[in-house]
From TrEMBL:
Residues 1-26 form the signal peptide. This is Transglutaminase-like cysteine peptidase. Pfam families: Peptidase_C93 (PF06035). Transmembrane segments: none annotated. It comes from Chelatococcus albus. The keyword Signal applies. The keyword Signal applies. It comes from the Bacteria.
Amino acid sequence: MKPAHLAALLLAAAPTVLGSSGSVRAMETSPPFLNAIRPASAPVGFGPACAAYRWLCSNAQAVVRSLAPLNDAQLLAAAKAVNVEVNAAIRQVNDIDNVGVGEQWSLPENGTGDCEDIAMLKMKLLQERGIPARLLSLAVVVKDTNESHVVLVLRTQAGDHVLDNLTNRIAPWADTGYTFIKMQNAANKRQWDLIVLGPRAQR
């Protein structure tokens, strides 16, 4: 995604729930799940991607497979494998340098893409490996550098875990150091929800 100025817009969009000082503060307790506050607007570029990739905005599986429900260990193992595979295969390049436009969400078919392109590819591959679409959501976060970033969230029974193109580690959301601004709704994948949880959040 675009760097700091987009993050500033996201922060300004929720002044009642984000700390006005912008200072980092540790949350006393972190819930295991990224629960929504209210509906939010989708990120720029998501709408056209939703039209282009049916699996991105549907809870139907991209590939039908007769698999037994996966437990958390199996979900996390599949997520780790895909995260490592995609991170090794795709080189991060911003949209301006890659496709000549400011913001375009598309699969990184030429081996390059930015954070949302890489997150979408991971979602697609995990669906193809039998992970239910309802357990996978894109999320917009703010890093400690005040840059916006997109990651993929995997919902397990124990809590929400993050697949990130900046690390091969699959971490619970609260261990990423990110402030989560908004996330794709698990039940209606065309809708996004305001989250506002993390070091800079103040509900």
